[in-house]
Amino acid sequence: MQVLIVTGVSGSGKTTIGRLLAERAGWTFHDADDYHGVENVAKMRGGSPLTDDDRIPWIETLRREVVAPSLATGEPAILACSALKASYLERLGAGDPRVRVIYLKGDYRLIRERMERRAGHFMRADMLPSQFEALEEPANAVVVDVANLPDVIVDEIMRTIGLPRVP
Length: 167
Hints:
By secondary structure, this protein is an alpha/beta fold. The protein has a single domain, classed as P-loop containing nucleotide triphosphate hydrolases (Rossmann fold). The protein contains seven helices and five strands. The protein has helices at residues 14-25, 38-45, 52-73, 86-91, 108-117, 128-134, 150-161, and strands spanning 3-7, 28-31, 77-80, 99-105, 142-145. Strands 2-3-1-4-5 form a five-stranded parallel beta sheet. It is globular and about 45 Å long. The two termini are 20 Å apart. The relative contact order is 0.24. The model has no long low-confidence stretch (mean pLDDT 87).
């Protein structure tokens, strides 16, 4: 396995878990939010959910700039990405045996509370319903409950996939 895609709705903890997992495993971390075009960010800041037409170029950029290079060079990478549909995960390479999907699953109420507490993020809490509407829970993913503390979640992921911790 060379690429871990940490997915879930906005506010599920993808960035927090992805960074901590990368730190513990000694892998490179990428946040998919950093790859959104200015139009997508402006649309979300304005309170409008992204459409497939908005998301597919973003997913293709992630495949080209994060997943493909990692698979080509063998450098392990973790990508935190709200790839909410099976087709997005497929475009990212989820069918490749070197790619593993970690799904951060959580209760709507808990995630909404988290989103309401965070500051400075372009994804507003009132857009959470659109995330759950678009969500297709991924098949063949490692499913982790986001109600646990980040350290517990990361320990569970590492144990489940057999990822050693770097000293």
